[in-house]
Amino acid sequence: TFVLDRDKAEEAYRQKLVINGKETMFFNILPLKYQWAYDLYKTMKANHWEPEDIPMQKDIEQWRDTTAVNDIDRWIIKMGIGYFSAAEGIVGDNILHVVREVVTAPELKLVLGRHAHEENIHADSLVYMLSSLGINPHECEAMFEDVETIKAKNNFVVSNSRALRRDIDLTLTENKQALAKNIFMFGQIMEGTQFYGLFGMILSLYRQGKFPGIGQMFRYTLRDESNHIEVFRNLLMDLVDENPDVWTEEFKEDLRATMKEGIEIEKAFIRDCLPVDSLGLTLDEFLTYIDYIGDRRLESCGLKPLNENKLENPLPWLAEMMDIKKETNFFEGRVTEYRKASSLDTVDDDEL
Amino acid sequence: TFVLDRDKAEEAYRQKLVINGKETMFFNILPLKYQWAYDLYKTMKANHWEPEDIPMQKDIEQWRDTTAVNDIDRWIIKMGIGYFSAAEGIVGDNILHVVREVVTAPELKLVLGRHAHEENIHADSLVYMLSSLGINPHECEAMFEDVETIKAKNNFVVSNSRALRRDIDLTLTENKQALAKNIFMFGQIMEGTQFYGLFGMILSLYRQGKFPGIGQMFRYTLRDESNHIEVFRNLLMDLVDENPDVWTEEFKEDLRATMKEGIEIEKAFIRDCLPVDSLGLTLDEFLTYIDYIGDRRLESCGLKPLNENKLENPLPWLAEMMDIKKETNFFEGRVTEYRKASSLDTVDDDEL
Ligand SMILES: [Ca+2]
Ligand SMILES: [Ca+2]
After folding, report:
1. What is the ipTM, given to two decimal places?
2. Cα A169 to ligand 1 centre (Å)
3. Contact partners, residue A250, CB within 8 Å, separation at least 6
4. What is chain B's pLDDT, residue by residue, as a tens digit (352 residues)?
5. CB A116 to CB B114 under 8 A?
6. Distance from CA of A233 to the nearest CA of B (A)
7. Which ligand is located closest to the Cα atom of residue A122?
8. Of A342, A344, A348, which is closest to residue A326 (Cα–Cα)?
9. Domains and CATH numbers, chain B
């Protein structure tokens, strides 16, 4: 007695939307509307890693050895573990309690679920680093509580996220813009730009042969981040496509100004907390690197860069460990080739 | 200048609670307070599987072959895929937007994140089954829309979950009880009992050599479910430990009555939709099996079973494929040995 109702099927497809779509009780992933989301879900799965797979013996030896590493190196590691312990939690909470809460299309929920799951894995990897090195987690936390530049960095995103953790009427343009801004702030400013100061520091140590296990985990984390940035960028672009009222000139300027603020906050943090010169880097180059990334994020969302003159990447070796180049052709190629290998060893440098 | 403040560390530990604890911005998993949560997180990871690992060639051949399987077999598969597509979505939404939203201890958030991730994998496995067999997903959905006994089953949990998707004051006993009831309903009644009617049907087919790929995926799913039931049971028990005002005689009777209602709903669904006899099972035994499971779930939470006389499992072969025995010693052994193998082949029948 049950027959397929083709009109119903087409109606269901039409009602698949980033927001304000049908809150289907059924996890109606098929037929796919947001192909990129399912493809990216598969890519993210193929990149799966677990902290226990990475040996920490060498890191433990170095941590205890007064000649192999110095206290500045240890400081950077603690700073990295402490910052990302907070940051991954903030990102995860925002995905689950802000973005996934309002997104209605099931394949978008699927990829957001994977995104949140990877924040879990990252948090677990930090626990693994802490317990391997025997660092008291509260010591890490205590390092943070009194540092204004870190508080500023966290408050910048947390205050935005908290404001959205309530029922909001997403038929109103201003509320849609608040959501779009949240997606931009988390994907492009926080994960996309503010994460890169500490990533750069830890990978500098890794390049010097220091803490190879931790460095490897951060390389895996970075590969994941490049997908997170892409998830949130595609989500923003599709939200804007479906809700063109969001994308006013004024709103675009607001996003650029927010990126500017995020970059300033990151630079203040770097100046205050990251002993760049002790790693043989110059502060100037390091800060320019942050500007460079910020501009790339803006451009990838169709926004004007902050710097009139196109910046060159001042730290090309970092680009080799981080995924930057792949994004340059975003608007030409859109996000079609997600093909990545499941093992880090067979991945192009381009992709990290 | 940063020193470890031991008092602060101890205070942070004390403020780790299931609910109403410190909403720490830091993902302060260490030092662990809820050891079971971290252990179970590791077990769940060790059980990781992906649908693409399971070959579907045989299933596809059978699906197309008019002699190998009959239309009742196909009906059961469609019913299974359709029901779980809805159910896994409902469970996932409830974990993320009700339970994880209010739980404050980070290791609990971690394991709930893994739980939600596994619902994602299960949903993805259903997509894989649908697309392998070439079933139109809307045909599956259409099968459901007019069936009262299925609507009753979904409404039973959805109405509870929706009522909690808002800010609630969790210092009030009645609201804590509403949360505790949600955790009981989802973990013990829905995932713990109502899932087992269709699980039983699909594993009956599997035992007859029908749809081996689908059967294998459901066996993996069941292994995951046994952990989900455990996560939610431990969560309930710790919530009650920390909030003894929840656990009144009246409330316990309410949970028993709700289980009774859940079982009646499941039995009505079985009578209406599951052609038990066509698989060589008797309806009576099949319904008793549901009673049997319901009582085990109640007992595992320290609640009196619904049936005065201890029921025997009428379908012992199903117990061999499903995890029931392990739970009998819950209160003696608490949840200490989570050790499981990562491959299904090396797992005791007890555990499935
Ligand atoms: Ca991330
Ligand atoms: Ca489940």
Report:
1. 0.85
2. 27
3. none
4. 345 567 777 887 888 899 999 877 667 788 889 999 999 999 999 888 999 989 999 999 999 998 999 999 999 999 999 899 889 999 999 999 999 999 999 999 999 999 999 999 999 999 999 999 999 887 777 777 778 998 899 999 988 888 887 788 999 999 999 999 999 999 999 999 999 999 999 999 999 999 999 999 999 999 999 999 999 999 999 999 999 999 999 999 999 999 999 999 999 999 999 999 999 999 999 999 999 999 999 999 999 999 999 999 999 888 777 653 343 333 333 332 323 333 333 333 333 3
5. no
6. 22
7. 1
8. A348
9. 6-346 (1.10.620.20)
